[in-house]
Amino acid sequence: MPVLVASDLDRTLIYSAAALALTMPDARAPRLLCVEVHESKPLSYMTETAAQLLTDLGDAAVFVPTTTRTRKQYQRINLPGPEPTYAICANGGHLLVDGVSDPDWHAQVTARLADQCAPLAEVQEHLLRSADPVWVRKHRVADDLFAYLVVERELLDEDWVKELAVWAENRGWTVSLQGRKIYAVPKPLTKSAAMREIARRTGADLTLAAGDSLLDADLLLAADRGWRPGHGELADTGFTAPSLRALPDRGVLAGERILREFLGAVRGAGAVPEPGA
Fold first, then answer.
1. Which pLDDT tens digit goes with each residue over 124-174?
2. What CA–CA distances, in Å, run from 243 to 11, 59, 224, 253?
C-alpha cells in the first residue's frame, strides 16, 4: 500500500527570503535552491539538501503539495523531484490531477460552502469596510472561495485581528495571520477533506502531514502522523495532538528536518528500503 504525504508549502517546505531564519554565521549558511520566481524575481527557496530529500520522497511515496495558494500561485512553484500527480490548492477548494482541477470535487466543495457558512461577499464587504488603509496594502479574493489581506505587519492592529476572528467565527469562517497576510477562510473549506479523497483514490493506508499555520491544523489532526516546525501560528499557540510531533527547528532548516522525518516514516512503513539494504 502506498504512503500519502500531504505537506503545506510556504513556511513548511519552502521559504521566502524574509522567512529563512539563517541565524548561523554566514560561512555556515546552507546552500539554497530557488524554487519560485515571480515577476522575474526569486521568491521562494529550500536548501539543496531539502531538494534532494524531496526528490527521494517523491520516488518513495505519493507526495501531495497542499497549499492555501490559488492554482495560479501554486503553478509558479518549481519543486524538485517527480511531478506530483495530485496537488491540493485553495485550502482544499481545488484538487489538481495532473495539473488540472477536478470539476466534480470543486462542485462538491462549493455546494458545501453554500450550505454551511456565510457567503464570501459578506466577508469581503466586512474586510473592505473595517480594515484600516493605514496598514492594508492589498485586498484579494482567492479563486472565488476565500479572501485575504496583504498588510504592513509592523503597523497592524492586533486587536482588530482578534475582533475579526470572533466576527468570522460566528459566520462559519476562520481567520489566520501568516506573515504579511490575513486570511479569512470558510470552515468547511479544508485541506483534510481533500487529503482524505486522495487517500481514497490512491488506496493509501498511511497518511503523513506537515504544516505551520492555523489553516493546517485540520490536516495534521486528520493524518496518521504529523509534524510542525518551531515557528508559525501553531508553534506560537502551542498546538499539539497525540499523533503530532512538534519540532524545534525554525526557518528553512525546518523544511529540511520535516522532509527527513517524512522519509524516515515512509521507510519505517516498509514502503521503500534504506539505501544499500
1. 999 999 999 999 999 999 999 999 999 999 999 999 999 999 999 999 999
2. 21, 25, 7, 22
